[in-house]
């Protein structure tokens, strides 16, 4: 399978990365090189093979569903580009 | 006075306990080397001199009372991927501009609890994506090694290029690193250092900036097999904060070093003899086989038939996981924000400005292979192939193989901005051809310096072990180390 420049632009939008027309064109070639490379997997017989979900055979650890952490809102927002009263500030979403 | 930066961790540990010198003197010696050499090597993106001196003084107080920890006073460099409280942590990306965590990663917490001293944060490929340390926002790291009679700058490998180069250039005694497809072992091989990627689940991933969560593992880079054993013992732990941390006690890895390897069965996989592999890599591999045989190990030919599919499967699994992990960088909670006409435009502008080209490429590949209609054809298939890769190894272990010997890399270090390497992204990806299988199967792998290329550059051999059997890798690695000797770059910097 290969992608065209329109597909690259659509995927970039899904990934929320702005791309210029020039960049989309350049990336189309690069992405197709990678997609061409992974096409080798079509040679492998995967009939009846289970997909890997974990390399280590271990039951997922569980704990009681309860609050175990928190109470430091100022730390949580300490690295945010824009905050007010321990809230993250973003451009207006609802008119 | 002897040059303190030439000591191994094991030697320094003994001399500090004997009070031959102080931890502060040791730290000052490394800070002086960084000051003199970092301009040329660019291994550090931040040097924490004041903090290092403070930690070294605290170590001296503990040592004076005879209360020193396992790494008391040992100066280390930390890859920029590890969260260090109040200190630059950006995965060498612009998108984490100014990020200073309010918490400490489990791995670094373990090191400080054992008395280690932090010298600073080390350069790396952006988000650990790269094999040459040329994708960092903070510029290229330069390999301390050069070809005989040449002054061309070479890459240190990647993504832990800063870790490997800082150890080789004596700018730290050892360094933390991480390995998703070969990012510890390939740079170790390129710089004549020892690097081990432990079993998946051995070191906690808590507080390590995530790239591909099912593949990422932290490990050390150091000068000797023993030093890497000492560091791994401190870095590894069982951690409640990481659900993939495995509940197995951390053994005393050093105890394995020097134990006879007589009777150990070493597998030589036919599929690692690649077309077009340079003769000197083949010769190095043969030498490794002879050394282990001479030490009493039994050499057996094995087959790992799905080896060639590991790299293509990796370039589906790793970008898919990366596209999901890196979705968090949105200009809202941390790092860079570039304004836009609305919130979606702000996201798109921020991510366009914050991520470099290689990271964007991988996010796009990952987004594509996970998008509606393509999931089964790519991601599901890759995870099935991954099961087959693991099964190949499981069969080898079931046949009594104790460890597997392979070359670490398909070549020695190449030039910075190498045109051939940059002509096609897949060429760079091939650097990980011998290492990536190990990540796909979650196994431990160590790279040990084993010789020099015809042009005088270091080459490494890789040993692959059974899950949680790092001890056998240290045991066998030290046999190779003893036979090959140690390597030191000719000093041209600082």
UniProtKB/TrEMBL annotation, chain A:
Transmembrane spans: none
Domain of life per record: Bacteria
Reaction(s) the record says it catalyses: L-glutamyl-tRNA(Gln) + L-glutamine + ATP + H2O = L-glutaminyl-tRNA(Gln) + L-glutamate + ADP + phosphate + H(+); L-aspartyl-tRNA(Asn) + L-glutamine + ATP + H2O = L-asparaginyl-tRNA(Asn) + L-glutamate + ADP + phosphate + 2 H(+)
Enzyme class: ligase
Entries under Pfam families matching the protein: GatC
Biological process, per Gene Ontology: glutaminyl-tRNAGln biosynthesis via transamidation; regulation of translational fidelity; translation
EC id: 6.3.5.-
GO molecular function: ATP binding; glutaminyl-tRNA synthase (glutamine-hydrolyzing) activity
Keywords from the UniProt entry: ATP-binding, Ligase, Nucleotide-binding, Protein biosynthesis
Function of the molecule: Allows the formation of correctly charged Asn-tRNA(Asn) or Gln-tRNA(Gln) through the transamidation of misacylated Asp-tRNA(Asn) or Glu-tRNA(Gln) in organisms which lack either or both of asparaginyl-tRNA or glutaminyl-tRNA synthetases. The reaction takes place in the presence of glutamine and ATP through an activated phospho-Asp-tRNA(Asn) or phospho-Glu-tRNA(Gln).
Family label: Belongs to the GatC family.
Quaternary structure and partners: Heterotrimer of A, B and C subunits.
UniProt name for this protein: Aspartyl/glutamyl-tRNA(Asn/Gln) amidotransferase subunit C
From TrEMBL, chain B:
InterPro entries: Amidase, Amidase_CS, Amidase_dom, AS_sf, GatA
Molecular functions per Gene Ontology: glutaminyl-tRNA synthase (glutamine-hydrolyzing) activity
Keyword Nucleotide-binding appears in the UniProt entry: yes
Top-level division of the source organism's lineage: Bacteria
Keyword Metal-binding: no
Residue ranges of coiled coil: none
Any single Pfam family the record assigns to this protein: Amidase
Keywords of the record: ATP-binding, Ligase, Nucleotide-binding, Protein biosynthesis
Gene3D superfamilies: Amidase signature (AS) domain
Domain (Amidase): residue spans on this chain: 25-473
PROSITE patterns in the record: AMIDASES
Active site residues per record: 79 (charge relay system), 159 (charge relay system), 183 (acyl-ester intermediate)
Function: Hydrolyzes indole-3-acetamide (IAM) into indole-3-acetic acid (IAA). Allows the formation of correctly charged Gln-tRNA(Gln) through the transamidation of misacylated Glu-tRNA(Gln) in organisms which lack glutaminyl-tRNA synthetase. The reaction takes place in the presence of glutamine and ATP through an activated gamma-phospho-Glu-tRNA(Gln).
Subunit structure: Heterotrimer of A, B and C subunits.
Protein name: Glutamyl-tRNA(Gln) amidotransferase subunit A
Underlying gene: gatA
